[in-house]
């Protein structure tokens, strides 16, 4: 039987967030950053996962490889 683990003992599952990462016409300049930081990111943490957005990766390869 596999032993259950908690997020402290095992790497979190990563949740890749697909959304605009720059200013968009018709929205305040920080709109999408605020949506990500105040709504999306906390919800992903509450679900027990680690949020990752394209601009938070350190690699310069194709998104789907990360």
In a few lines, what is going on in this structure?
The protein is of the alpha+beta class and 66 residues long. It contains 1 helix and 2 strands; from the N terminus they run E-H-E.
Number of strands: 2
Helix content: 10-25%
Characterize the largest beta sheet: strand count, sense, and whether it forms a barrel: 2 strands, parallel
Distance between the termini: 31 Å
Poorly predicted tracts of residues: 1-6
Average pLDDT level: 81
Shape descriptor reads flat
Which strand order does the major sheet show?
Answer: 1-2
User: Rg to the nearest angstrom?
Assistant: 15 Å
Based on secondary structure, the structural category is: alpha+beta
- In N-to-C order, the SSE pattern is EHE
Walk me through this protein's architecture.
Residues 1-6 have low confidence and may be disordered. Helix content is 24%, strand content 15%. It has 66 residues and is α+β, with helices and mostly antiparallel strands. It has one helix spanning 31-46; strands at residues 13-17, 49-53. Helix 1 links the parallel strand 1 (13-17) and strand 2 (49-53).
State the main characteristics:
2 strands; flat; alpha+beta; single chain; 66 residues
